[in-house]
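Q: What would this chain look like folded?
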Amino acid sequence: MSTPVKRHKGPKPRPANDNSNLRDRFLAARPGWRDIVYGAIAWGAAMAISAQASLWLSVAALTSHYWSLTALAFAGAALAWPFSLVAFRFIAFRRAREAAFAAAFLCLTVFTIGITSALFAIIFRSYYAQWHGEPFTKLWLVQTVFTTASALYQFAVLGIRLYLPLGVGSLFMASWLLASRYSPTKNRKSGILA
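A: My prediction, written as structure tokens:
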């Protein structure tokens, strides 16, 4: 008894190491200036409002660093937006909307926290630089490394709280908006993304 072999219908499968669409990914990842500027302002404002709400809920805004922390949250998020947008578009190229949502969520989270913590580490290190040794010596290098590591640890423990509770909601909304604006379907006639 012989069963017929089912033939694959459709385009020929590509090997796993085929990077022919890498150029297309890079071209699709380039955002326009409006997406960068308006998105950075909106994302920065959302994270600044989240930081203010967190400070109001935790210490009733009774801190001398209220506006400094708000500015840090705004600057970190605004600087993270272009990197997040490019990485999102690169990762989500021709993917389903669910995958685009996950890519947007991941990119916004990683870049916003990463760049904001780096800004905090720069400010922290510049404050403690007055007690460091002579520049570019072995002692100075050790002090700089440990001061930066301490700043990153402090931001991980205390700074992440600035994004709760409103930051998570803003993250979901921004990821949903990016994924809904993203169209993974191809226009069959022209071969470009719709």
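The two ends are 49 Å apart (CA to CA).
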